[in-house]
Amino acid sequence: MAVPPLQNESDILTKIAEGDQFAFTILFNHYQKDVFVHSRRLTPSEDDALEVVQDIFIKIWIGRERLKTINNFGAYLNRVVRNHVFDVLKQLSQENESHVKLQSASTEFDDSTRQLLDYQDAIHILNEALTELAPQQKIAYKLCHQEGMKYEEAAKEMNISTETVRVHMKQALNKIRAHFRKHAVLYPMLILALYK
């Protein structure tokens, strides 16, 4: 990805690591379009690319504490996107699906129910969803999404098969999405607002 770094990007990353949502918004606004374009070149559909964008920035926010140690965020982001897309494509291939089905907020909800939550509420709902995961799902999600492990690495850490990790991750993500739907939003407001 060829997006130039933000001015004072290291300071912004430090603020995000400390939980600054405004700094995260700045980072998101700067990189999200390029992540989408890059993901779209590697995925079968726009819906798949959009889901990659959503998952990537959720992953960055959840694992924000590690941002303090990153010297080149553009290179880090490129690696995270590439690994995530390859995992998605591997899952699609194994499930014999042409693409991951994702209904947009505009078709899922009418205008009265599509009121977007503010970002803080969306993060609260995400954390709430994480607490409701089964123990193995929570561990798999933490290793793969928060710590950035590949399924094979997480499988070794958990002493289970790669396929079992994949199943736990699929179940975890489905539960998280279902939890957002229950609150009348598919994904955090910040991401949906820019793509509605």
From TrEMBL:
Span of domain RNA polymerase sigma factor 70 region 4 type: 125-176
Entry keyword set:
Sigma factor, Transcription, Transcription regulation
The protein's GO terms of the molecular function aspect are:
DNA binding; sigma factor activity
Which GO BP terms apply? DNA-templated transcription initiation
Q: Does the keyword Transcription regulation apply?
A: yes
Span of domain RNA polymerase sigma-70 region = 27-91
Name the domain of life this protein comes from: Bacteria
Database matches in PANTHER family: RNA POLYMERASE ECF-TYPE SIGMA FACTO, RNA POLYMERASE SIGMA-70 FACTOR ECF SUBFAMILY
Q: Which family does it belong to?
A: Belongs to the sigma-70 factor family. ECF subfamily.
Its protein name is RNA polymerase sigma-70 factor, ECF subfamily
